[in-house]
Amino acid sequence: MNQHALPTIETIRDAAARIASHAVVTPVLRSDALDALAGAQLHFKCENFQRGGAFKFRGACNAVWSLDDADARLGVVTHSSGNHGSALALAAATRGIAAHVVVPEGAVQAKLDLIARAGAVLHRCAPNQAAREAMAEHVQRDTGAVLVHPYADARVMAGQGTIALELLAQVPTLDALVTPVGGGGLAAGVAIAAHALRPGLPLFAAEPAGADDAARSLAAGHRIESVAPDTVCDGLRALVGEPNLHALREHAVEVITVTDAETIAAMRLIWGELKIIAEVSCATVLAAVLKAPERFAGRHVGLVLTGGNVDLDALPWGTTPHP
Amino acid sequence: MNQHALPTIETIRDAAARIASHAVVTPVLRSDALDALAGAQLHFKCENFQRGGAFKFRGACNAVWSLDDADARLGVVTHSSGNHGSALALAAATRGIAAHVVVPEGAVQAKLDLIARAGAVLHRCAPNQAAREAMAEHVQRDTGAVLVHPYADARVMAGQGTIALELLAQVPTLDALVTPVGGGGLAAGVAIAAHALRPGLPLFAAEPAGADDAARSLAAGHRIESVAPDTVCDGLRALVGEPNLHALREHAVEVITVTDAETIAAMRLIWGELKIIAEVSCATVLAAVLKAPERFAGRHVGLVLTGGNVDLDALPWGTTPHP
């Protein structure tokens, strides 16, 4: 498979079979209070309960188990601000191979702890795309490890797409679907899978206003690389990948941009009403639904909550200790 | 039924049938990391996902639907620092009757909001047992409403006991069970149900060291009323009820006391590993398992997480806002 191509419904189904014995079939939660607020029936796909605490395990696991034995023996390498890194480390552990993870300075400590706990070798670099890629190439040359890109990789997108297979089976009445968009691995994989099963299903992607390169790129008709991310959503700072953007365009995914304040308010609603720990990045999906109610009124909406790896000492709203 | 008597397995089964169309069958969650920490297989019964965000809905719902029509028409009244109050308000709403809730000054704001949202009439009083009971009696006289005591009530205990029926069906291999103990409605109901199904099952109750009247009462052989509660666990400050204490003794429930620091550390573990919002009070159960590992080594342990109504602006550890 050409890693820069897009997955198909067949490769997504293959991925589902490949990861079945390793990944969790995550539950779908509901809340009367949030339904009332949105004027729609909301179905939250809880990937915070996924192995490693985020959906990223699906794509990483599919990539690791797609390798032939000779390649696998040399291990895998990636660059990631956190969740993909720990996911790849966990996935490599399921196959007993080495994982190298290049992490930018400034990544969330809870996520670095997870990577280290999963047994990966950490390689630090400066917090920009060029430094990440250069360090990953260096490790590749040194070790022979196979690069598993966080999102611009057909194996990874296929793994993320398995979420749509699961969610549509869990909630057959779904008539709209929202994911966050950062690099676009999830948004692309879900779009391809969802439209294979349900052609014409309205698809949305929630993007922070401070990292709105996907929205701008779709509007401009080509990939905009000049956006300097400035958002509290640490999982959504990556620029959308070229193949990912292509999939979003092809599947008419509508991007809804939300401010950090809207996202933080949505995160509090998720914590308070669903009683679950969800990362700030994935609260963008609820923020988007509440911001554009006319798109969702009366619909059965699937919202992918992507992860729950939160630094409990640094919540976005701050708190005072109990008396 | 004499409200000061104890429920039986029959009245607990009746309660399960009575509340079935109103209450949630809550999920059981697991964590490899927490299992490793405890040296046991931990099964968390997640009552934070119960209607109203706490197990209290079960007992309140059973009490409300146990009333005959003439009594029900006059409404119900209770005194509660929070979760039982909102549970009774929600339960009353399912039958379309009035609920009056006496709340002590200083109760958690998130819980008061829930009570008000459910449509109950709030009556404030001083934060002590005598003031709570006096105000509840006053409302009873004024309105004719039926008192539904938070824990020393056989209907309420029967409702709480349904948790054990569910959990033993969900995890048939269970060989130990831990609940928190405050007033003892949950601990008593669960003990009676669990021992009817599994005689001899080791039962434990986790109690804050700063409100250890159940531990002291069991040790002394009579109810100690002189404990002035001093604990962060707002849901466990009540003195254990007389019938509740009787059930704990009869079923050889072993009380494990834990400090607030141990409980707060356990709460962080639950949030971080299970990715759910659990109240500080219910983290006592994990604190107890980690404090007395010799009691649980290698066992399949059921832990009842009682609720998730947390004031997100006042976490017990405090946090600094994200940069």
Automatic annotation (TrEMBL), chains A, B:
Q: Which SUPFAM superfamilies does its entry note?
A: Tryptophan synthase beta subunit-like PLP-dependent enzymes
Per UniProt, the keywords (alphabetical) are: Magnesium, Pyridoxal phosphate
Q: What InterPro entries does UniProt report for this protein, alphabetically? A: Ser/Thr_deHydtase_PyrdxlP-BS (IPR000634), TrpB-like_PALP (IPR001926), TrpB-like_PALP_sf (IPR036052)
Which Pfam family name is an example for this entry? PALP
Q: PANTHER family, alphabetically?
A: SERINE / THREONINE RACEMASE FAMILY MEMBER (PTHR43050), SERINE RACEMASE (PTHR43050:SF1)
Protein name listed in UniProt: Pyridoxal-phosphate dependent enzyme
Q: Which domain of life is it from?
A: Bacteria
Q: Where is the Tryptophan synthase beta chain-like PALP domain?
A: 22-307
As cofactor, the record names: Ca(2+); Mg(2+); Mn(2+); pyridoxal 5'-phosphate
